[in-house]
Design brief:
By secondary structure, this protein is an alpha+beta fold. The chain has 19 helices and 18 strands. Helices cover about 45% and strands about 20% of the residues. Helix 8 (about 195-210) packs across helix 9 (about 225-240) and helix 15 (about 375-390) packs across helix 16.
Length: about 450
């Protein structure tokens, strides 16, 4: 009876298709965070392909099969299998194709010596290997399935599972269908109606594969699917994250046709722990958020370009020149001040360089308009020498092209002295400007120093 059947179904742990080579798949009875992550990753970088093979032993049999497929406007390819010694027509099924194929299937099966097979394949491609490994772990935990393909292609990693039961879970319970989903990716209703923890797990899957972490510790998501963007925004809102949203129109690099998309991005005033929870432990973006927060334990893979700014190039330059100001780095790398400051703040958090108004000394890589407050000993030496040489403050002021009041303010330490004026004074008085400016009391801006030079963080 129904009660006994329900008891049996409740105790089923594994199921398998009717094939000798098929392996049992773990039964999944309820939606959990692990499955939500799988679906999120699939919506970001995954694909489901369903291939229907209609085979016949008769060489001319494919003409009859093709005619029936053409009646329903179903595209197909045909060929010959040497291993099976059969002629076949192959259909790459999409959501629309399933309905069309259902209509014509009884007539196809009525043809003599015709067999049909359906092959299901779930694939995912991603730049970082550890993300793909995490996806494989989720699949193993959820369904006890392992990939039949795990390979590197160029700069990306590809993983594939050939499993009808897992595919049917996606189709029947999560409304996922084969075919392109760039603009149609979405949050399944069963997940949308679930708890915030389930929805955050779904967002984790999406962001691990389609999101990015910026150098200023923000999460950014750029998608063509307005539905999926809206869902992630709703999850962030319910999780009390502050974020912004921006729409854009661009041209497709291949077709030249315009398309619209949306960028979702977190703002600066979010709890870093909340952001980190949107990525799996030990994966690259998880490591990057930790690293940007100052952790030396978690070091991510960083993209290095010999022709552009990078953390490595900044440190290499500083190791050679020892110290400079931000303007020098901005000009050297030909980037905006905001960009260079973002990189410097990260390296400062990593304790690999110093950012300070109290440097050990100055250099030729510091803007000459920098205001310098000399340490008392060097200040006294400079102006005692100046008094011996010029006799009067007015004479000294005129010599360097300054007003007497300005010169007096420098002398009485009311104002900082521009480095350019210090160079003129020291040259005239035969003093070493770099000794005079050593260990200044303060500057009017921060200098960047390589950490090994060893002053205290300021």
């Amino acid at each position: 009876n129904h009660k006994i059947l329900k008891t049996i179904q409740g105790r089923i742990e594994y199921i398998k298709v009717n094939s000798a080579s098929a392996k049992p798949v773990k039964t999944l009875r309820r939606l959990d965070q692990n499955l939500a992550k799988i679906v999120g990753a699939f919506m970001a970088d995954g694909s489901l392909s369903v291939q229907i093979i209609i085979a016949t032993n008769e060489k001319g049999g494919t003409k009859d099969i093709g005619a029936l497929l053409k009646e329903q406007n179903i595209l197909y390819s045909q060929g010959y299998s040497k291993t099976r010694k059969q002629y076949y027509c192959a259909v790459q099924a999409k959501r629309k194709t399933f309905g069309q194929f259902t209509k014509v299937l009884p007539r196809i099966k009525a043809l003599p010596q015709v067999t049909t097979q359906t092959h299901y394949s779930i694939e995912l491609t991603e730049e970082y290997k550890d993300n793909v490994e995490a996806f494989a772990h989720w699949m193993k935990e959820a369904f006890n399935v392992t990939p039949h393909l795990f390979e590197q292609r160029g700069h990306a990693w590809r993983i594939a599972f050939s499993n009808k039961i897992v595919a049917r879970y996606l189709i029947c319970f999560l409304d996922v269908w084969p075919g392109p989903k760039t603009q149609d990716a979405f949050e399944p209703q069963i997940i949308k109606n679930s708890s915030l923890n389930i929805r955050k797990a779904f967002a984790r899957g999406v962001l691990m594969f389609d999101g990015c972490v910026t150098k200023d510790s923000k999460i950014l998501l750029d998608l063509k699917s307005s539905s999926l963007i809206s869902s992630i925004g709703d999850i962030w809102k319910k999780d009390d994250l502050t974020f912004g949203k921006r729409r854009y129109t661009r041209k497709n690099n291949y077709t030249g046709k315009p398309y619209t998309g949306t960028v979702l991005y977190t703002t600066a005033n979010n709890n870093p722990r909340k952001l980190i929870n949107y990525f799996e432990n030990g994966t690259q973006k998880w490591k990057l958020l930790h690293w940007l927060s100052g952790s030396k334990k978690h070091v991510p893979q960083l993209r290095i370009s010999p022709s552009s700014i990078s953390f490595e190039r900044i440190l290499s330059l500083l190791k050679n020149i020892e110290r400079c100001d931000i303007e020098f780095l901005q000009n050297y790398f030909m980037c905006s001040r905001q960009t260079i400051v973002t990189y410097l703040n990260v390296l400062h958090q990593q304790k690999k360089l110093l950012l300070s108004q109290y440097p050990k000394q100055l250099s030729n890589h510091v803007n000459e308009q920098t205001g310098v407050s000399l340490n008392p000993i060097q200040h006294k030496l400079l102006f005692s020498q100046a008094k011996s040489y010029f006799k009067y403050d007015l004479t000294g002021a005129k010599f360097i092209g300054a007003k007497k009041a300005t010169y007096s303010a420098w002398k009485t330490r009311k104002n900082r002295i521009p480095l350019q004026s210090l160079k003129v004074l020291c040259s005239t008085l035969r003093l070493d400007v770099w000794k005079i400016t050593k260990k200044p009391t303060s500057l009017d801006r921060k200098l960047v120093e390589f950490k090994e030079l060893g002053t205290q963080d300021s």
